[in-house]
Structure formats: C-alpha cells, structure tokens
C-alpha cells in the first residue's frame, strides 16, 4: 500500500512538472485559422455535415462564422490552440458593433469582420455604429 | 499481484514526453501541445492507474477462475510467451474494434480519443471505467485456452507499453517491412483522425496485420491533413467531463428513448439514433463519398 501511495505521489509530481514545462515552453498560444480554406475544412467536419456557402473569417484568424444552404449558422470557437464547431440556434442573437460581431451565449467570442459584420447581424444595433 | 511492466515504464514515458516537448518546441511546431490539454491527458492517465489498482485484482481473479476450466495445460514454457503475446494482441484488436462499434464499450474508451492533439501525452489518456464496461471479457478466452493468468497480464502490460510511442507526429514513416507488420505512428494517426475516410479504421495494438486481415486497414494519405479528436469535439479541458461524458450521454438517451429503443442506445454503434437524427461513422463516410463524387 505504501509503495502504491509513493508511486501515486511520484506520478502526481511528474504530471505537475510536465504541465509546468509545457506552459514554460510556450504551448499556450491562441488558436489561429490561417485561411478561409482551413476554416471551410473545419466546418465540413461538423457532426451531421456543414457545407459553408458564406463565410466570415476573423481578421486575426481567431474564429470564423459560416452559413450553409439551409440557412443554418455556425461558428468555430477557439479551444486551446484548436477549434470546436458550434452550430447556432436560429434564435441566436448576433450583434454587430464597429465591425465586430458578438454572439449571445458565447461571451468570450468576438469576430472582427469589418464591413462584413453587418451582414451577419441579426439585430440592427451595429447598423448605427458601423 | 504479478510483475507489472507498465509501472517500470512510467519514468520512461515521462522522459519521452519531455523529449517530444523539447523537439516540437525547437522545431517550431507550436500547435503540437497545449498545456491544459496535456494536463488533462496526464491527469486521466494518473487516474487510470488508480482505477487499475482498484479493479486489477478483480480482473486477475477472474482470469484465475476461468483458467480453472482451461482446455490445455500450457504452463510457463518459453514458447508460450510469444504465442500469448500474439494472441493477446488479437484479443486487443477484437476489444478495440468493439470499443468503437458498441457504445457501451465506447463510453469507456472515448476519453482516449477526446484530445484534439496527437502527441505522447495523448497515449496516457487511458480508461477509468474499463472494468465497468466489461473490457476484461476480451482477455478471458486466453485463460480458457490455458495460458497462465500472470503471463496474460504481463503480455497485456507490454502491449500497452508498445502502444505508447506510436502516439506521435514526430515520426513520419518507418521502413516498409516495419509498416507492413507493426502498428506505427502513421497507422495510428489514422485511427485517431476524425476525417471521414479514416473513421473506425486501424484498430491494431502492436501488429497491424489484424487490420489488413479483417479489412479495417487504411493507409495515411499525406495529402489529407489529419484532424484529431472525436466527431463531436468536447470543447472542454474538464477532467471529469472528458472521462464520464459518454456515460452521461448514454444515461440521458436511455432515459428519453421509447422503451423499445432503450437498449439500442447501449449496444448499437456510437452515433446511432432511433429517429435517424445523428450519424454513425458509416453515415459520415457515405456523406463524404457522395460529396466527393459530386465535386
């Protein structure tokens, strides 16, 4: 029993040390999309399929929003240095302000789309600001 | 408890992860690791050693019990070791294929696939709930044949150790003869991919020959960038969600399903639904094939 406890404590110390080393080595950079083509590839991997016909890529490549032929909208949400697909409900509110869109329910997400932002908005809040 | 080779391998695992971290950092592969993902992977690995300590004795006892009905008395003769290792690897193939094709087994195995990264730390995402999922049943036939339970457990340990080093993008291709017989980083990258063409392929543990024999082998295509993880990406580093999310999903589906479909949500393939509202691997592949022919 003591041996097993010692092994557990040793393993826990090694796990902690490795996580610290990973952080110190700089593996904490944000997720980045290099191009619209990469964003399209990621949307296509969505469960149930999602073929973008319209796509907005954040100016820094930090996220993307897309719509498909059926009118569904979805976003690529950063998760660590990767992305996860999230489909928006038809009722999702999208605000456009100063060329940026924000989406209700996704508080940490803001996409810089410039002039395109207004086209994605579901409200007219941003219209007066852009 | 018999000799456990995995315990002795853990310091080597740590050293190799450290080596891969340095290699990827200084070769400019900044996306290869993510510190929170690594933390989750290693914590799942640590938790699995606790789960193994709690249930390992029961698995050993079951092997001993089944060995009481053994068809042959093989004993500890030298030639039994390589034979046991090869047959255990076949048993692993059957287990692993079932773990991807039966949701009950998948619920236990999914945490091994839930990382969107593919590095040596991913290898340590081992199951906490393997005993509950009845994964041990796949090793019982070896004891029934007559292999010593201690020998089986040692072979299981060495098989697990072999599979550690293939979880890397640092190794591209190995000599053809090796790729033809052995499971390699290239073959196993395919297994961890969510690209439609790669779903539910390359189940091998140590020897890739089983996939070649049973028609589940797909080679890695360098033109198609691999994306790792699971079809519905978790989007969280929460340790407990990573470990238990599929069990919770099964519970929710069984609760909500009509009576005649309840069991199907446990034993049918992941992605199956009684109303066709979700996709299985076959459905995803068919959709991908159709989209390719339309291009």
Give a description of the structure.
The complex is a heterodimer of chains A (130) and B (295). With 130 residues, chain A is of the alpha+beta class. Chain A has helices spanning 2-24, 36-44, 117-120; strands at 52-57, 64-68, 73-79, 82-87, 94-97, 100-103, 106-112. In chain A, strands 1-2-3-4 form a four-stranded antiparallel β-sheet, with helices on one face. The longest helix of chain A has 23 residues, at 2-24. The termini of chain A are far apart. Mean pLDDT of chain A is 91; it is low at 126-130. Chain B has 295 residues and is mainly α. Helices cover 55% and strands 0% of the residues of chain B. The chains are: A alpha+beta (130), B mainly alpha (295). At the A-B interface, α1 and β4 of A face α1, α2 and α12 of B.
Task: Kindly name the structural category of chain B.
Answer: mainly alpha
- The unreliable regions of chain A are 126-130
List the strand order in the largest sheet of chain A: 1-2-3-4
What's the number of extended β-strand segments of chain B?
Answer: 0
Total count of strands of chain A: 7
**What's the pLDDT, averaged over the residues of chain B?**
96
* End-to-end gap of chain B: 58 Å
**Low-confidence segments of chain B, ≥5 residues, pLDDT <50?**
none
What is the CA-atom radius of gyration of chain A, in angstroms? 20 Å
Q: Can you write the helix and strand succession of chain B as a string?
A: HHHHHHHHHHHH
Q: Give the structural class of chain A.
A: alpha+beta
The number of helical elements of chain A comes to 3
Shape of chain B: globular
Characterize the main sheet of chain A.
4 strands, antiparallel
Number of helical regions of chain B: 12
First-to-last CA distance of chain A = 67 Å
Q: Main β-sheet of chain B, in a few words?
A: none
């Amino acid at each position: 029993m003591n041996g097993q406890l010692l092994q557990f404590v040793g393993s826990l110390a090694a796990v902690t040390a490795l996580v610290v080393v990973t952080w110190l080595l700089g593996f904490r950079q944000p997720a980045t999309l290099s191009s619209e083509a990469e964003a399209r590839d990621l949307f296509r991997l969505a469960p149930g399929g999602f073929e973008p016909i319209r796509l907005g890529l954040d100016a820094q490549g930090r996220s993307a929003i897309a719509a498909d032929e059926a009118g569904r909208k979805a976003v690529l949400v950063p998760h660590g240095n990767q992305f996860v697909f999230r489909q928006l409900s038809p009722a999702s509110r999208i605000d456009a302000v100063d060329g940026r869109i924000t989406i209700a329910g996704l508080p940490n997400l803001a996409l810089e789309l410039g002039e395109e932002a207004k086209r994605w908005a579901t409200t007219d809040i941003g219209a007066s600001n852009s | 408890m018999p000799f456990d080779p995995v315990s002795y391998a853990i310091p080597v695992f740590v050293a190799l992860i450290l080596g891969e971290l340095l290699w990827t950092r200084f070769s400019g592969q900044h996306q290869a690791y993510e510190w929170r993902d690594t933390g989750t992977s290693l914590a799942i690995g640590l938790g699995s050693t606790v789960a193994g300590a709690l249930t390992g004795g029961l698995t050993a006892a079951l092997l001993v019990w089944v060995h009481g009905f053994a068809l042959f008395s093989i004993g500890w003769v030298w030639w039994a070791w390589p034979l046991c290792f090869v047959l255990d690897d076949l048993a692993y193939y059957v287990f692993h294929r079932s773990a991807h094709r039966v949701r009950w087994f998948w619920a236990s195995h999914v945490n091994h696939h839930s990382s969107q990264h593919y590095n040596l730390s991913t290898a340590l995402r081992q199951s906490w709930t393997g005993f509950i999922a009845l994964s041990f049943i796949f090793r019982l036939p070896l004891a029934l044949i007559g292999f010593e339970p201690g020998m089986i457990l040692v072979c299981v340990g060495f098989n697990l150790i072999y599979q550690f080093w293939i979880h890397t993008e640092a190794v591209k291709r190995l000599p053809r003869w090796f790729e033809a017989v052995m499971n390699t980083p290239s073959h196993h990258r395919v297994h961890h991919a969510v690209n439609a063409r790669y779903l539910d392929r390359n189940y091998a543990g140590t020897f890739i020959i089983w996939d070649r024999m049973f028609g589940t082998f797909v080679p890695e295509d360098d033109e198609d960038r691999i994306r790792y993880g699971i079809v519905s990406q978790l989007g969280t580093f929460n340790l407990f969600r990573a470990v238990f999310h599929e069990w919770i999903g099964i519970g929710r589906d069984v609760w909500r399903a009509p009576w005649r479909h309840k069991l199907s949500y446990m034993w049918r393939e992941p992605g199956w639904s009684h109303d066709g509202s979700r996709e299985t691997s076959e459905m995803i592949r068919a959709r991908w094939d159709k989209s390719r022919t339309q291009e």
